[in-house]
Amino acid sequence: MTNSTQPLIRIATRESALAMWQAYYVKNKLELAHPELTVELVPMTTKGDQILDTPLALIGGKALFVKELEVAILENKADIAVHSMKDVPVEFPEGLMLHTICEREDPRDAFVSNNYTDFDSLPNGAVVGTSSLRRQCQIKALRPDLVIKDLRGNVNTRLRKLDEGQYDAIILAAAGLIRLEMPERIKQHLATDLLLPANGQGAVGIECRTDDPVIHNYLATLEHTETRIRVLTERAMNRALEGGCQVPIGAYASVDGDQVTLKGLVGSLDGSQIITDEVTGHTDQGEALGTQLAKQLLAQGADVILKEVYKD
Ligand SMILES: NCc1[nH]cc(CCC(=O)O)c1CC(=O)O
Predict the structure, then answer these.
(1) Which of 41, 61, 74, 293 is deepest in the core (most CB within 10 A)?
(2) Under DSSP, is residue 207 helix (H, G, I), strand (E, B) or coil?
(3) CATH of 109-190, one of 3.40.190.10, 3.30.460.30, 3.30.300.70, 3.30.390.50
(4) Where is the Porphobilinogen deaminase C-terminal domain (predicted)?
């Protein structure tokens, strides 16, 4: 907020189509709820956007996509940042907080292909594009014959690489394709029990300065309680597994009345070992449930798998 007569909120955002869509989504919701408010976008290129051909795990992970945005807020060049929750590191820098979690879009992964109608119809040895260790380990467990090939870049880049014939199929979050108005690209929604999503997948979160009550007040109208419970439950599991950046970990929570059920998965990269478990409890115990499920997974051998993954 820079001007007391004309309230203004500046959104720091990456320039990818999906990031811009999410920033406009928040801008529109804020302006609808608060007609006196002006919301401006501050687009910026992050380090993560510039390094497109190196596997994420090797360049230091997802933090690269949010750091510039966070610095802009801390330096008061912007007021908030809008993130895909699954790209937000579990811890926040001093002075910043995750304030708002908006209503979740479809959390599932999507099977995308120009030649095949569904996952089961892929022939022996077909090439599947994904750079996500979580997707890789689960696909290899389901179909050890498939060949996983690295696939980086924003959603449109990934679709172009598929269309160029570099892959028989690719796996993308359904939410990204729906938001970018390409639902027809989704040949099959992969059930969460078949391919457990990433923590936070499909949800948008808003980060801002911890000490900024005026902004907090404006943001409150965008909050979605059930999504918050689900996403914080999932994130608590990842945090307890120390699953900071690129990890073969799935986490998915659903709410039924006052009960939340969390399913978790840790897999070895070749898919030869997959450890899954679930817990159910009261919705006001979500984060404790996440921590508990992480302990159960570790006790069942996830500790050995993760040690092996982090070693490389
Ligand atoms: N890792 C990139 C990323 N971050 C968020 C989404 C999709 C939208 C979402 O999960 O909110 C995507 C693309 C993908 O995984 O296909």
Answers:
(1) 293
(2) strand
(3) 3.40.190.10
(4) 230-298
